[in-house]
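Build the 3D complex.
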Amino acid sequence: MAGISEVARLAGVSTATVSRALSGNGSVSALTRDKVERAAAELDYVVSSTASGLASGRTRNIGVVMPFVNRWYFGEVLEGAQAALRRRGYDLTLYSLSSSPDIRSSLFDDFLLRKRVDAVLAICVKLAPHEIGTLLGLGKPVVGVGGPMDGVPTLSIDDVEVARLATEHLLGLGHTRIALISDTDEPETNFHIASDRFRGYQLAMADAGARADPALFRRADFTVAGGHAAARDLLAAPSRPTAIFAASDEMAIGAMLAARDAGLSVPRDLSVVGVDDHELAGFFGLSTVAQFPRRQGERAAERILDGLTPGRTDGGLDVRVPVQLVTRTSTAPPADAGVRAAPHGSGSSSGSAATP
Amino acid sequence: MAGISEVARLAGVSTATVSRALSGNGSVSALTRDKVERAAAELDYVVSSTASGLASGRTRNIGVVMPFVNRWYFGEVLEGAQAALRRRGYDLTLYSLSSSPDIRSSLFDDFLLRKRVDAVLAICVKLAPHEIGTLLGLGKPVVGVGGPMDGVPTLSIDDVEVARLATEHLLGLGHTRIALISDTDEPETNFHIASDRFRGYQLAMADAGARADPALFRRADFTVAGGHAAARDLLAAPSRPTAIFAASDEMAIGAMLAARDAGLSVPRDLSVVGVDDHELAGFFGLSTVAQFPRRQGERAAERILDGLTPGRTDGGLDVRVPVQLVTRTSTAPPADAGVRAAPHGSGSSSGSAATP
DNA sequence: TTGAAAGCGCTAACAT
DNA sequence: ATGTTAGCGCTTTCAA
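Done.
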């Protein structure tokens, strides 16, 4: 509970000097700084963020807005952002849109405007122009993750490229009847993620002279259950695909489970590739295109802090973050490819795919 | 950017009256309140939380501390707390301990002390006495979720009872060779969760006159992969169990997958029961003891806000929150029980268990 | 019920 | 490099 004036008294300097010494703003002699630091430690002094924020206009707190926290991707981004912010002495105030459907307007009309945060990280939340306008008008920088927004620097993966990578992996193994499990774009949150992945798939197929058969497309909602249902449907069709590209690992895992339920072996009878490198992907032996959401969260946080520090230069507007094809045991040449023998020994229907 | 004085001028009253009208503290005539509200709306006035916080000592912000955000249980608690806080106009500032191992001391020495939060919710984080002391000494109420802490009101499930419920469910079906997959307690975070569940299992077994065979216990780390490995091991043993109680759904799901890998059918050859009612439990047909983490988060949030409002009474110190046995298709009488026939038609090894 | 005015604890000119 | 001082924008006595 000691205040800055007690520290000043104990150190034998003015409160202004204490402020300078502890914040690093303004010049203080090494000796004085030392005295001040000693005194502060002695008194367990901790700056009051409300007082400091009121006086300086800076809160050392970043608002993070995301559609929900309870999906693997978002949790990872959150952990990454949290870690990066804390390293630089910043707090993170969380705004999850899933709390209630009508929360969104109050968020932008009240919560984000009460000067609690210095800047906003929008994770896969497509801000409306007026929302961006309000924030920027208030001098609050915004950094986005997950898709381009007008006037907002953004980190994102190239979703077309991701789908192309995954599809080309399957094509390269000799597959041509490749099914796609994806979603249609949800307004307000997901930008063009689903449709971009759709396009990447189509482009890769076209480039390879393969047919993107509409009968091999199924919609699902990015969950295990959704992927399971979609794959079950695909696999029951008269002429089933030899491979499935699912636009998320959770759906891909659902597809692998559906294959097993249908008595099919992965990858002998069906190859499956996903996107994310979900924590369960390794366990299921799932080949996937890894994105690195924790790194994305870290980079977004660093980016926004740099934007708050006038000295640092901004690295251009929209930054692409890397992805990487990770091949495991869920993909192999199709059984009738004849190029090489199936690379495993187990002959029966259940088993190897789920062994880590 | 309009301040309280603009609002006061437009409404033709003093800033004090504006403050009273908008905050609800102190009495204002209906007419005046109306004028003030109009003026505030007209000017898009939003109170500055730093100024308000400095003047009043209240920030309308709650700190939430948890070991990590990226596990289903914690994500749910977080969503629940977030929703409840937002409903009452509060913000939520998140402190995840997983960011870095040495973060913890700085959290309690700096971050939580800078008057950014009015109170702290500790989710499955066992606070040391001096940490609690600091917080309470600063007048910051603390509410815990997940286990008793001295001097801190806590919401928790009865872990002994949870394990007993699950074990008795299996015993009631006729199982006696019941394996346990759990962990040993981690210091600093998990209280007695693992050991309490161990005890509940033992008590139930003893009450039923069954033997809690040490050879049927395996440690695992609450993950799918951990449960899978533990179950694989159990099922390879000379005399394998007819049922497994896993102390979390993720481990239980791992166990179900291991059973399938071993060519065993669930529940015909093996019954599995978990704890949590994880989002995937329904998909896998997993019988489980549901706890309701979202509700836990909500209740904890409401509890702490009530503690901040002097009028409301506190509902006693440690509150037990309800759990509920949910039976699905992963549990059935053992094959040799002879009581009733196996309740399904599929004769082969893979299949029904993963069908939602 | 309302207004006047004194802070809340710190930062940032401006001096020196 | 350091001290003096005027706010930052609001809340809350205290008086009326």
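Chain B is about 40% helix and 15% strand.
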